[in-house]
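step 4 of 6: structure.
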Amino acid sequence: MKPARENGRAFGFLTPALLVMTLTGVTPMAIVAYYSVHDTFAGNSFIWIGATWFRQVLTSPDFLGALARSFGFSAIVLLIQIPLGIFIALRMPAKGFLASLYIVLMAIPLLTPYIVVGYLWKVLSLPDIGLVTAAAGLTGLDWSMNNSIVVWATLLMMDAWHWTSLIVLLCYAGLRAIPDDYYRAARIDGASGWAVFRFIQLPKLKLVLLIAILLRFMDSLMIYTEAYVVSRGGPGVSTTFLSHELVQTATIQFDLGEGGAMSVIYFLIVLTVSWVFFSLIVPKERGAA
Amino acid sequence: MGLSWMAWTWPTAAFFVFVVLAISSMGLWEYRSPGGNPRRGVFGLDTTRGDRLFISMLGSAFIFLAWLGLYGTPLWGGLAIAIVWFLFVFKKV
């Protein structure tokens, strides 16, 4: 326990951050929550209607469909990118010129703006001139963006292209932090490559993997720009994710109440997931320190 | 008394009053009898009293949403489940 005076000073240092948070985070969120329980005419007279919007959102097939698609997308993204990221990180050279080169190459997709990634993959999957379309054509596949499975495959490849590097870099850093003694001990015991991975590398990577899963999950759940550029939510609503549904409701149909209710539910989901990961990560860090 | 001068309604005000009361009574409780170190509960999580308040509130938000989605209004049934959830979290988690 610190002396009381030091605690007081700590609050002083926290004040600017708290003020900024209040202005940029808490106040807009409170306004959204306010919208979610009111109906509005002309945007300036509000009438209390209780949970009506929430009831409407929770029973709307559009919302539930978008929710299911978002969770499905995130699940597939994690299933592809986490193993792939670990696999690549394990095969990167430990030191030397090549190590630096690969790290730089890996960082390039991460530095590419979302909208550029979207256009890149839209062009790649264009009929007639798209590289992906042509490559799929060679194997006899019809890469038509009117087929929802093809659109999903394109979005998943695009996301893997954009973000697997993040997992590679995190895992690579985690792997480099394992002392050589562990490997030496494994060699003396005659451990197989799989045993080294299963009992040394994977346990040591647990913390970075948790962080990687959290980052990738939240980011893929919030996917908007790239998917919008590639498919505009189509064909039909097959790639309309939660963020598209929310923007459509709140800023195109201008349904402030319904959009507010959706945002509150979205926020609760994000809060829950972040909290679960936080409470998984923090005790581990405390244990490691 | 109307609250329209700051664009509030009684239900929104009641919500914030509830949050303030919850936090300040937690503070008073901690002052009177400190809760001490985190304990390991039934979910295998290490929680302090503040964590348990957070879990109860977040959980009751989902309970109310589920009640609304599956049953609809009125919300009294959801409230009953939420209170049971609060008691469970503070006793066992």
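step 5 of 6: annotate
 - Residues 62 and 75 of chain B are 13 Å apart (CA to CA).
 - Strands of chain B lie at 39-40, 46-47.
step 6 of 6: archive
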